[in-house]
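Colleagues,

Please find the record for the two-part complex below.
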Amino acid sequence: MTPRSPADPWWMLAPTLVLLTGFFVVPLGVAAYESFFAWDLLTPPRYVGLENYAALARHGALLGIALKTLAYSAIVVAGTLAAGLGLALLVDRPGALFAAVRTSVFSAYVVSWVAVALLWMALLDGSTGLGAGWLRALGLGNVALLGDVRTALPALAAVGVWKLTGYAMIVILSGLQSVPQSLREAAALDGAGAWERFRYVTWPALKPTVAFTATTTLVTSFQAFDAVRIMTQGGPAHATQLFVYAIYEQIFLDFRVGRASALAVVFFALLLGLSLLQVRAFKPSGRTP
Amino acid sequence: MASASCRRPSRPLRDGQRVVVTFWYAFGDLVRKVLLELVDRFNESQSSVLVRAVHQGDYFEALAKLRTAVAAGVAPPLSHVVLEALPYLASTGAVDVLDGYDGARSLALVPALSQQGSFGQNAQAPTYGIPFNRSTPIAYCNENLFRGEGLRVPTSWDELVFTARRLTRLEGATVVRWGFEVPVSWWYWTALVGQLGGNLVDADGTLSLGGPAGEDALRFLQALVHVVRVMRPPPGGDYQAWQSTNESFLQGRVAMMWGSTAFLRYLENNASFPIVASPLPRGIVSSVPTGGTMFVILRSAPEEERRAAWSFVRWMCATDPAIDWATRTGYMPVTRPAADTLGGRGFYMRHPNDRIAYDQLVHAKPWPWARDLFRIERDVVEPILQQAVLTNRDAREAMREAREEANRPT
């Protein structure tokens, strides 16, 4: 379709551009500007150059936050995609039973993070939780998964996987159902087994859907806040101090707007870089199978 | 219509002829209930001021909201802030000087709980805070378990270790009952530092975080967890760890805990066993920090609202409300007449646990009046303590890092 006037596409884009500029570009610019100041909201800001970035880099604090966030995201994205894909393949069948399973798995996604966090806190409690009971039965003693620096982050990520799997399952299921059945039947007639049918017929058609799910799950996992705030408050000993919670801590608990802004800028750069890499990784190769 | 609903209400706020005082508070459960009942009593006692209490989360959430509201120019006239944040708020000019308010100099506050008593180096500073809910850390013991083992409440660190060892129970490799538990937190670490004779700030103004005493206090906590293994660091941060300690104690999974006197009534009401409260044990000396919050009046509020807020603060310091507040919560009575009246009525004879915190005030160690005190607590010491206790990191190295960060200009 050819626009009647060169300005037409811009008019159509205008509402989105206005919203993006107002709620994304401008705040990001303000954050970048404020990252060069020391400011506690109550006294006048003081220009400090790159000191906020230097302070974050000291003692490996920034690196630690970035690595913890990446580790959390890696577990959440990998776990969610694997569980979502597996469940989608399992429940891609007609019948009331499979509809009930689909509904049950998806229901976790629509429950609020606060409710999910409270539920899992009770389940993971080191003394009275169901999970702790299982670990005791295995002879592992009292294990407080959220209270141990080694297990708190994986435990938190596992809760994220549990919450997001329903979302991944539904999106991937919609992708699966858009793969023509005739292609799979043709492959079967040609002697392809279940794995070959999945590998050479279903997966190439599903790849864009999985890429979309991976990107949105990555963004969601990077934005993790509610569960951290409720379940661990970034602890124990900063073991679950992820980016968004660290920003919250800096600005609202430690009174450091400049340092929080610096964290936000680094956070944005990291997320942008990862999203670009992910889009590139899932880009269609152009080859036909 | 949209612009009308978004417009800020004109101030001073009024409800009929009454000046409305919005009061941001940070309590839940029983303490909240008691406070709201006192607010109702105040509102019924006169017809010129109407206090509207608004819950704002825990101390730290409430402080964050208050600070943001001050920056946005929409702060309420009245709130209460955690003690350590008062020097910072005073330095920013956000809170009003209270000395000029009617009757401010004749409140007969318990000296150790007043601003001047709570901050030793602040004797000459103007008054920015009036004590509201004030506490000290005390020890809570499960009397049944102590009696069963024939134990007395510990009065020294050595006795604490001995007692905790005797009370810790193992089933196979699993600990089914810990002898002792305390949140790994700045407040309790400060108590230990004081008990070793250390000061957070040296006489020459150097921010030493107790020096060797700070390190030894950390080593003691590490030893309880990793060497004698009588304590489990409670999970979670901030007040979640405090609540977790309370729950473990109430469920009999911990025999003895350190906690705020603020939990006294809650623990007594919810325990299925008799509780004996006791002073914290001595190290080299007896020492406890004070805690809790101070009423503050926000300078940005209109004068009429500030004066109305003061009338409520003054009413809360009157003997009857102060007694009601103390006896129903476990916080200390903040005025001498209230404390004397309680003693005269035989309240402490009937409730000996309530007397512990008040008597312990003779060993209360004042906080330094330092602008960065709250930042150092939240941003520096608390996370380093937690990390060092959980990972058994070298205490000297951990506290060296804490001192370096604490002394770094912000």
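The longest strand of chain A covers residues 37-38.

Comments are welcome before we finalize the supplementary table.
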